[in-house]
Write a structure and sequence with these properties.
Number of strands: 0
Radius of gyration: 18 Å
Shape: globular
Number of helices: 11
Distance between the termini: 48 Å
Helix content: over 70%
Order of helices and strands: HHHHHHHHHHH
Structural class: mainly alpha
Length: 208
Amino acid sequence: MDIFVSKEVLESFMAGLGFWGPFVFLLLQVLQAIIAPIPGNLLTMVGGALFGFWPGFLLAYIGNVVGSLIGFFIVRKAGRPVMIKLVSAERFDKWMETIGTEGAKSRTKILLIIMVLFPFLPSDLMCLAVGMTAISFRAFFVILITCRPWGQLGAALLGVRSYHWPQELLIPLFAAIVVVCILGVYFAPKLEQAVIKWTYRVTNRMDG
């Protein structure tokens, strides 16, 4: 699992695959949308560095969308037993209590849009969880393909540009990214709860 916590190790691993590199990268992007421990942003940065901006971004985007769709259908068919194997039962039940399996479609859609758009929020978990809600596949698909690419565009660009920026700019940039990531991970649970509460208030007003 060391390759999934170090950009350098992951990049070396992918570069060593030669011709099969893009195919393995695409497969990993599919899996990371279902298996949480694989960090998608890290993969996308490596894809941008190894394959170039557009190929890296497109492979990441296609793989992530395909993985999210597969996860959606798996959860819709298998339900809670699958979800509690991917996340804790306590966390999943808390999410479903907030989202609701029936009704409150506007709340589900707003939450899904926010979770997918912004980094450090559990977007992959949300994409899995909505498989157990009343949201239609069509609504899920439209939200996914329109909201998912923006964070991956930034990650792919960062992977490419990291090779060309002068060192005096790269070091402060890297330090800033580390700080943002640490703060993002630290405050992610609080941010998640704040987003859920805000969405709950907004949709209650809409439904009322």
